[in-house]
Amino acid sequence: TELTRQITPPQLNMTTAEQVKLVADSWAKVHAIDETWDKQGHLLFAELFTLAPEAIQLYPFKDDSGDEYKAKLSKHAIGVMKAVDSSLKLWGSPEGEKELNDLGKRHLNYSVVQAHYAVLGQALLITLEKALADGFTAELKAAWTAAWEAITTNMQKGNY
What tens digit of pLDDT does each residue of 88-103 get? Predict the structure, then answer.
């Protein structure tokens, strides 16, 4: 796939090209569920708020309700999914590293601490597992864990 060609194993600190292919192929399947990323984003945030209900306090929509809450959550959830997508596509390039580092810097202003990255990573793995069902193998989980670690390491570099 296009994403597989854009990501090489050394850039993601993965051990094998197969892991890169697993991440790229699985991400394409997840994207195909809803090309706007809305469904996947909602699932991600449902998992995040299940794992860490207090995390809602970090978001600007925390005091909203009804349609306003839903609209703001959707906008943010879609943005997060698009950021992961962009991170995977640009990983290893100077532009991608800068984008991730700038994203991490912005998150300092939102009171995000290093531990929050791990919780979101757990929510992402659960989201992927639910979206891919039997296709979410132990090998795929290991590949995604490595990808998330690489992404968040770059986001945190020099910011904490």
Answer: 888 667 888 889 999 9
Determine the Cα–Cα distance for residues 147 and 141; give it in Å rounded to an integer: 10
d(CA 65, CA 45): 16
State the pTM of this model: 0.87
Distance CA 35, CA 1 (A): 16
pLDDT tens-digit readout, 115-130: 999 999 999 999 999 9
The CA distances from residue 71 to 38, 39, 50, 91, in Å, are: 11, 13, 20, 30
- Cβ neighbours for 3, distance < 8 A, ≥ 6 positions apart: 23, 24, 27, 28, 88, 89
